[in-house]
Amino acid sequence: MSPAPNRVLEVLPDAEAVARRAADVVAAAAREAIAARGRFTFALSGGRSPWTMFRDLEGEDVPWEEVGIWQVDERVAPDGDPDRNLTDLEPVIPSGADLRPMPVTEPDLEAAAGRYAASLPEAFELVHLGMGDDGHTASLVPGDPVLDVTDRDVAVTGEYRGRRRMTVTYPVLDRAGLALWLITGSDKAPMVPRLLGGDRSIPAGRVATAEQLVVVDAAAAAEVAPS
Question: Which residue among 18, 36, 77, 150 has the highest number of C-beta atoms inside a 10 angstrom radius?
Fold first, then answer.
């Protein structure tokens, strides 16, 4: 049996501070990986936190030409649709970075998922994750059969909140060097202790990446017991 993940919690005052901390972590990881191996591979979830994180990354000394960025998940929707993570993500990606969007507009989604899986690195240096108010992460959502997929690195979900999704599966997350959780807002507060405790009844609690840094704002940490 694999050892339990090492989950480190950091509580910061607000969402702006969370984004600044995330930028510091990503920049440091990128510089270290590029110095050691010549490339940094990074998987990025949707939501608002990447927008502010990349704004803060603008001032960091990172050789973006050596950075590959893949999507953790994406809604099945047309190009430019406001439901697409890519619509808001693409404008904030630093110039020179190698962005690999999920091919969710292709007619055969299962085949597209297979091709996207083939493009993934053997293991990401860093995976950015968020968490929903129902405990989902990536597009690993409560009750979906994709939660139990272990033989594919990318899969297509059923409909969730009006859209089907394409998502990486747990094996991809679990192979990463670091899972960086960015969680803000009081609506997530009930789920944060369950994530920290590895509660497998919520999708986020099943992520088994060996090293996990959980960065939350004060509102999201409201139900975390004092250490």
Answer: 18
- pLDDT tens for the chain, 227 residues long, are 567 899 999 999 999 999 999 999 999 999 999 999 999 999 999 877 787 898 888 878 999 999 999 999 999 999 999 999 999 889 889 989 999 999 999 999 999 999 999 999 999 999 999 999 999 999 999 999 999 999 999 999 999 989 999 999 999 999 999 999 999 999 999 999 999 999 999 999 999 999 999 999 999 999 998 86
Q: CB within 8 A of 194, min separation 6: which ones?
A: 135, 201, 202, 204, 205
Nearest-5° angle of CA 7, CA 146, CA 143?
A: 85
For residues 87 and 91, what is the distance between their CA atoms, to the nearest angstrom? Answer: 8
CA 183 to chain centre: 11
Fold (CATH) for 6-217 = Rossmann fold (3.40.50)
Report strand pairing: 40-44 vs 67-71: parallel
- Cβ-in-10-Å burial (0-12, 13-18, 19+) of 41 comes to buried
Burial class of residue 131, CB neighbours in 10 A (0-12, 13-18, 19+)? buried
In 3D space, the residue among 182, 191, 179 whose CA is nearest the CA of residue 216 turns out to be 182
CB 137 within 8 A of CB 156: no
β-strand pairing of 211-217 with 6-12: parallel
Residue ranges of the domains in the chain? 6-217
